[in-house]
Amino acid sequence: MHTQALALLGQELPGLHHLRLGMCMQVRDEGLLQLKPLTRLASLDVSGCENVTGNGLAVVANFPGLTSLMCNQCNGLEQGSLVHLNGLHGLQNLQLGWCIALTDADMQHLTHLTRLTCLMLSYTKVTDEGLPCLKPLARLCRLGLQVMPSIS
Questions:
Q1: Rounded to an integer, what distance in angstroms lies between the CA atom of residue 134 and that of residue 107?
Q2: Distant-in-sequence, close-in-space partners of 31: CB < 8 Å, separation ≥ 6
Q3: pLDDT on residue 41
Q4: How many percent of the chain have pLDDT more than 90?
Q5: Residue 70: beta bridge partners?
Q6: What is the mean pLDDT of the segment spanning 37-57?
Q7: Mean model confidence pLDDT for the chain
Q8: End-to-end CA distance of the chain
Q9: How far is CA 114 from each of CA 2, 16, 37, 82, 86, rounded to the nearest angstrom?
């Protein structure tokens, strides 16, 4: 999905609540910027959009009503990208599986997301050292840590 198509969505469907763009390989940060008018967005799926980076997450931070963010296999996310999620206090579902650059240092950026009930971190570089950062997430009831050899 090209930037022009995302611009059309942003302009023509301002009441959109849920948007699934999974595996749309042409989605880039610039395209996500075109979604800013979607102020009612509650759920966004950009799983498999490998060109989405931390700058794209900065755009996502403009959706204060977001409760679900799926970024599985977003290999463009680099260490430090999660800092942009700090303001999404209503986030309940965060899926970051197969985001292979995410490490223990990134876990500190999740401590403010105290409404999280589901967090998927499978196939990341998170180790035992990053897990204590999840302690403030008292509502967490689903945690995915599959295929993580550094978790003991």
A1: 7
A2: 1, 2, 3, 5, 6, 7
A3: 96
A4: 95
A5: 45, 95
A6: 96
A7: 96
A8: 40
A9: 34, 25, 26, 15, 10
Residue type, 59: V
Taking alpha carbons only, the member of 80, 35, 28, 26 closest to residue 54 is 80
Per the CB < 8 A criterion, the answer to whether 94 and 120 are in contact is yes
The pLDDT score that the predictor gives to residue 128 is 97
Under the banding of pLDDT at 50, 70 and 90, the label for residue 53 is very high
pLDDT of residue 2: 87
Rounded to an integer, what distance in angstroms lies between the CA atom of residue 139 and that of residue 31? Answer: 33
Question: What does residue 12 show for φ and ψ, rounded to 5 degrees?
Answer: -95, -15
Please identify which residue in the block is written with the tokens 């967090």: 119
Task: Give me the residue spans of the domains in the chain.
Answer: 3-144
CATH topology of domain 3-144: 3.80.10
Number of C-beta neighbours around residue 6 at 10 A: 23
Burial label, 49 (beta-carbon count in 10 A; 0-12, 13-18, 19+): buried
64, pLDDT greater than 80: yes
Q: Which helix (H) or strand (E) holds 20?
A: strand 18-20
Query: How far apart are alpha carbons 66 and 69 in whole angstroms?
Result: 7
Structure tokens given for 102: 């995410």
